[in-house]
Amino acid sequence: MSSNVRGTERGDAAHSPSHGGIAVGGWVVFAAVLMIFVGLMTLFQGIAAIAKDDVFVTTRNYVYQFSLSGWGWVHLILGIIMVLAGIALFKGALWARFLGVALAGLGMIANFMWLPYYPFWAMLLIAIDVIVIWALCAAPRLPQS
Questions:
Q1: Which is higher by pLDDT, 117 or 82?
Q2: Distance between CA 79 and CA 56 in Å, rounded?
Q3: 20 to 30 Å CA-CA from 104: which of 1, 39, 51, 131?
């Protein structure tokens, strides 16, 4: 017997999220929350580096020698952009997913270069950036309207 029911196929109906607003896929929401968290922590890390240069201990003869205030500005700007991209992810913007992957990659590079200043925190943020990239790439594509 055949059915004359029109609509989506059986597998698509269970996995397609509502398009627009806050109703986006679970992986995208997960990535957005983590991205906002990492962005805020990066922002605070940048503020701490700019405000108090003597808080962090630097390693001698580090290959990527850069002033701590300079790294603070890099982290501050990167953190602000990450928070804004994380907020855009809640709206379901496809461009925000691509930007999120790029920013998480830049965050990994910046935190790798930040290792001599605050190793444990840098490794933790690198790990969270890897999870953000994975969640953004694993999320199903939203339907076009």
A1: 82
A2: 19
A3: 51
Residues 125-130: contacts with CB within 8 Å, 24+ apart? 125/38, 125/41, 125/42, 128/34, 128/37, 128/38, 129/38, 129/104, 129/105, 130/104
For residue 89, the 8-state DSSP code is: H
Residues 94 and 136: beta-carbon distance below 8 Å: no
Instruction: Please state, in angstroms and rounded to a whole number, the distance separating the CA atoms of residues 86 and 82.
Output: 6
- Give the separation between CA 100 and CA 128, rounded to whole angstroms: 13
Q: Which of 29, 39, 38 is nearest to 136 (CA)?
A: 29
pTM: 0.73
Cα 7 to Cα 11, 13, 18, 98: the distances in Å are: 11, 9, 15, 30
Sign of CA dihedral 66, 102, 123, 80: positive
**Residue 33 pLDDT:** 92
